[in-house]
Specification:
Shape: elongated
Radius of gyration: 20 Å
Strand content: 5-15%
Structural class: mainly alpha
Number of helices: 10
Number of strands: 5
Strand order of the largest sheet: 1-3-2
CATH architecture of the largest domain: Up-down Bundle
Length: about 240
């Protein structure tokens, strides 16, 4: 008897595989995704692929347009700049308030989350270009810990929402090769921790601004040197 759960299990597996490819930048931003090519690649039916792609559209990783089909979400530099500006305003305010209300419990959370982040593998893949899921979780927890003493739950929630919105862009900034000087991500995070432990809110806000803007600048450089041609197919 055929297992009725098998198609759904296949769809989840294909969804996870395509999502990983998009986050790693192996499918170029804005490029077309061919359900038939993907079905052939993973040896599954077209219906399984379409279900997986539809789920990815719900997460804003894939765009579906009538007559045009599916494509990877575009790398919109105007959107990157806008999100970065809002993150600097909101997360910066939350970080300042957190440091102003810091106590020993706050310091312990920041140190513990930074330790976990620093001990978690950052990039993987054949060329070391894919941000690992474990690191992504540890990174989110670290930035959450930095704001954890902020007395405003709404401010903390808004900062977390903006970070989540920027997650794809952040991952792309770590996955794309830009031929620029290597980014010292651990040093950036260590500097934020040290400023928080020193109760230096002004320095922490400056470092956070630089941290966020570095992601934007890397993506701007990538777009400038790797323009996506409209209608170009994604590499399989």
């Amino acid at each position: 008897m055929r297992d009725p759960a098998a198609p759904r299990s296949l769809s989840r597996a294909v969804y996870a595989a395509i999502r990983a490819e998009i986050l790693a930048g192996r499918y170029a931003p804005g490029s077309k995704l061919s359900p038939r090519a993907i079905a052939t690649q993973y040896k599954v039916s077209l219906s399984v692929v379409r279900e997986a792609l539809t789920r990815l559209t719900e997460q804003d990783l894939v765009v579906a347009e009538p007559q045009l089909g599916f494509s990877v979400v575009d790398l919109d530099i105007a959107d990157v700049r806008d999100i970065s500006r809002l993150r600097i305003l909101i997360e910066g305010a939350g970080l300042r308030e957190a440091i102003e209300h810091a106590d020993v419990e706050y310091e312990a959370r920041v140190v513990a989350s930074h330790h976990r982040l620093s001990r978690t593998t950052y990039l993987t893949g054949e060329a070391g270009e894919t941000v690992t899921e474990d690191w992504a979780r540890a990174h989110a927890e670290y930035h959450s810990a930095l704001l954890s003493a902020c007395p405003s739950p709404r401010l903390r929630d808004l900062a977390a929402s903006l970070r989540e919105t920027a997650e794809l862009y952040r991952r792309w900034s770590g996955s794309f090769s830009t031929d620029q000087a290597p980014r010292d991500v651990p040093a950036e995070h260590r500097g934020l921790m040290e400023a928080a432990l020193d109760h230096d809110a002004a320095r922490a806000a400056v470092l956070l601004t630089e941290h966020i803007n570095k992601t934007a600048s890397l993506l701007e450089f990538y777009v400038e040197h790797h323009p996506v041609q409209p209608g170009a197919d994604a590499a399989g």
